[in-house]
Amino acid sequence: MPSAAKLNKKEEYDSRLCGFLEEYDRAFLVHADNVGSKQFQEIRRGLREHSVVIMGKNTMMKRSIRLYIERTGNDKWSPLLEALVGNVGLIFTKGDLTEVRDEINRYKVGAPARVGLVAPNDVFVPAGGTGLDPSQTNFFQALNIPTKINKGTVEITTDVHLVQAGTKVGSSEATLLAKLGIKPFSYGLVVQQVFESGSLYNPKALDIKQDDLLGHVTSAINTVAAISLQLNYPTLASIPHSVVNGYKNVLAVAVATEYSFPLAEKVKAYLADPSAFASAAPAAESAAAPAAGGGESKKAAEKEPEPEEESDEDLGMSLFD
């Protein structure tokens, strides 16, 4: 039988989690492998203004969520029941989801490669000096790492892909990375899912910007309009294009025949005498120039006219003399 102290702790945990379920509408489901207690303290301190972090056994979290749903009839948190798998926790928040996600990712610390650990990322050893004495050459040769002796130390001649992501770290690889002082891995809370408005979705969705959404919507509308026009099937996307195309057809008929309507009169007038429209444009520009020029126009007007060049008649000569 569980002790009274354990029962009290379970009740306190249930009360605390249910309080968060009632108070918050959004949360992050985070994975917490290899995160130490000190790191948790820093994360809680950094998120304290707008978020709370709660960890616990999956069975306890699921129990509390189920009891909350049964007691309140509010089942919006039910998607979490299937997602609580592994070493996970919840971060309830009232802040901007993108900003909180970025804040969570800030609290990651470097960690050495331990033997038997599954590498979360590829590990490369860069070319260059190692600071190790030549007696360590055999160690590098065992790992097929090309080296040379330079100024009394071992130097790696080319970059080496030492550990592949998803594979276990061997004892030789772990020893070498420790000798070189390389901490290839970083650990922290990893956001796995985002809960919002009763739904779970991938955190990559937070990287989608408003312009991206508008671009996708515009592209989709253009595609629907093109298909509708090709099939001669009217839709809301194609109707504006159909109206414009219909107007062009009617205008073409009016220009080619004696049939006319008000909008076609302007086109017919232009086709009949394009020079009238060409002369009207410079006149409009010249009329606007004094208003824009102001004082400069007055100064130009006040300038004395330049003397005309003497003609051939003034000189008593003619081109045909």
Automatic annotation (TrEMBL):
* PANTHER family xref list: 60S ACIDIC RIBOSOMAL PROTEIN P0, LARGE RIBOSOMAL SUBUNIT PROTEIN UL10
Q: Which Pfam families does this entry report, sorted A to Z?
A: Ribosomal_60s, Ribosomal_L10, RL10P_insert
Keywords in alphabetical order, please.
Ribonucleoprotein, Ribosomal protein
Origin: domain of life: Eukaryota
Which residue ranges does the record annotate as region Disordered? 288-321
Name of the molecule in the record: 60S acidic ribosomal protein P0
Q: Which InterPro entries match?
A: Ribosomal_protein_uL10, Ribosomal_uL10, Ribosomal_uL10-like_insert, Ribosomal_uL10-like_insert_sf, Ribosomal_uL10-like_sf, uL10_eukaryotes
**Functional description taken from the UniProt entry:** Ribosomal protein P0 is the functional equivalent of E.coli protein L10.
